[in-house]
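target protein:
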Amino acid sequence: MTFAREPRLVPVQIKHLRPTQLTVGLREVAQKREEWRTRAMEDKAEYLGKHLIPVVLGPKGKPYIIDHHHLARALHEEGVEEVATTVVADLSVLEPEAFWIYLDNRAWMHLYNAAGERCDPKRLPKHVSEMADDPYRSLSGVLRRAGGFAKDTTPFSEFLWADYLRRRVKPDLLDSDPDKALADALSLAKGQEAAYLPGWCGPITSE
């Protein structure tokens, strides 16, 4: 088992990347696709060079993504075939069970489905295109960009916010009135009940 002291850059075809989470927010993916389309051709290469996909090498040397799942999905849907990855750790010597336990303990995978239920690692998709939609993950992304909470280094912080919102914002509202859903989420984000969540900005108070 080895760990990279310096980033080791390896070009990998997106179709070979293995996700370490079951879901993405497809609205988040759509936004990243739109951002990609609006970039000039010369800017796209520079963008890819600055947004390396971090991976760990698992059993049989397969590359598992541990971040930037939305970006990988968006690039795949935009027809990009290859991305630059940085190898964070080589765990290829581990047996599958030990590999999953290690990733779980390092918070390098997120085993929760769109209903917020924890699943077996065997249910992880084999390709970025197979990740299911979690609309609450999209809502949490919109909420962060609207200033509802700050970007945080806590692993899967936006999924923690998604789970918080899942229990408080009705699912029908996400499709019927997304503006109202965001307004409700912004109100919820300022409440003391959300104070335990990463990036919480606190209530708005007046002097």
Q: What stands out?
A: The helical segments are 26-37, 41-50, 69-77, 96-105, 135-145, 157-166, 171-176, 178-189.
